[in-house]
Amino acid sequence: MNLQDIIRQTFAETLETHQAAADALPPAIELAANNLLGALLGGHKVLICGNGGSAADAQHFASEMVNRFEHDRPGLPAIALTTDTSTLTSIANDDAFEQIFARQVRVLGQGGDVLVAISTSGRSPNILEAIHAARERDLQVIALTGRDGGPLAELLTERDVEIRVPSERTARIQEVHLVVIHSLCDLIDRQLLGIRP
Ligand SMILES: O=C(CO)[C@@H](O)[C@H](O)[C@H](O)[C@H](O)COP(=O)(O)O
Ligand SMILES: [Zn+2]
């Protein structure tokens, strides 16, 4: 197998994962979009967290809510909890890295808000702590996960939504997470602006 074969294999695996996700995920994505829309129309906000590539996804999602996705519309209140390096480093330095999102959820979160927690493994301690904090503050959770959902999946209740990508590879899971985020933005825009399917 040469290097180009490896590239072709990556594309093939990506297509396979996207097809499996297209078969499995639409009901959960629709539910998550409706829950987000309900919270936003009720005057609530969205907090988003993730590590590494998923931190970038959190920021990507927040920017499309606050500014725009494909259409001009009023901005929607969403905050990526991954961006304020002073807050992040002081919490990690003075308390613990596991608390970097949880503390922000406790301080910024109010009942009725939504926490979007992104973790391909469902095992990152700071994401698990953020979900505990969301529970305490009465936030609903929308979790973007992969693999077997990890301990994260066990923390969710009936009120929450898990969108679990059917793959074992972090990169493939992240690629589908971006499609999920764009689908959520699309469904929210369509319903807010009355765009017919
Ligand atoms: O982007 C990638 C890999 O594609 C990495 O930066 C990856 O996001 C990091 O290893 C994360 O720490 C993984 O965390 P998680 O998805 O298991 O919660
Ligand atoms: Zn990556």
TrEMBL record:
Recite the UniProt cofactor note for this protein.
Binds 1 zinc ion per subunit.
Q: Does the keyword tRNA-binding apply?
A: no
Report the GO molecular function annotations.
carbohydrate derivative binding; D-sedoheptulose 7-phosphate isomerase activity; zinc ion binding
Q: At which positions is substrate bound?
A: 51-53, 64, 93-94, 119-121, 124, 174
Please provide the record's keywords in A-Z order.
Carbohydrate metabolism, Cytoplasm, Isomerase, Metal-binding, Zinc
Q: Which GO terms describe its cellular component?
A: cytoplasm
Coiled-coil segments: none
PROSITE patterns, per database record: SIS (PS51464)
Q: Which Pfam families match?
A: SIS_2
Question: Which reaction is catalysed here?
Answer: 2 D-sedoheptulose 7-phosphate = D-glycero-alpha-D-manno-heptose 7-phosphate + D-glycero-beta-D-manno-heptose 7-phosphate
Location of the protein in the cell: Cytoplasm
Any idea which positions bind Zn(2+)?
60, 64, 174, 182
Q: Which InterPro entries would you find in this protein's record? A: GmhA/DiaA, Phosphoheptose_Isoase, SIS_dom, SIS_dom_sf, SIS_GmhA/DiaA_subfam
- Give all residue intervals belonging to the SIS domain: 36-197
Keyword presence, Signal: no
- Which cofactors are reported in the record for this sequence? Zn(2+)
The pathway it acts in is: Carbohydrate biosynthesis; D-glycero-D-manno-heptose 7-phosphate biosynthesis; D-glycero-alpha-D-manno-heptose 7-phosphate and D-glycero-beta-D-manno-heptose 7-phosphate from sedoheptulose 7-phosphate: step 1/1
Reported EC number(s) for this entry are 5.3.1.28
Q: Which GO terms describe its biological process?
A: carbohydrate metabolic process; D-glycero-D-manno-heptose 7-phosphate biosynthetic process
Something else the entry says is: The reaction produces a racemic mixture of D-glycero-alpha-D-manno-heptose 7-phosphate and D-glycero-beta-D-manno-heptose 7-phosphate.
Q: Which HAMAP family match?
A: GmhA
Q: Which family does it belong to?
A: Belongs to the SIS family. GmhA subfamily.
Q: Partners and quaternary state?
A: Homotetramer.
Q: What does this protein do?
A: Catalyzes the isomerization of sedoheptulose 7-phosphate in D-glycero-D-manno-heptose 7-phosphate.
Protein name (Swiss-Prot/TrEMBL): Phosphoheptose isomerase
Species for this entry: Ectothiorhodospira haloalkaliphila
Q: What is the lineage of its organism?
A: Bacteria, Pseudomonadati, Pseudomonadota, Gammaproteobacteria, Chromatiales
- Tell me what gene encodes this: gmhA
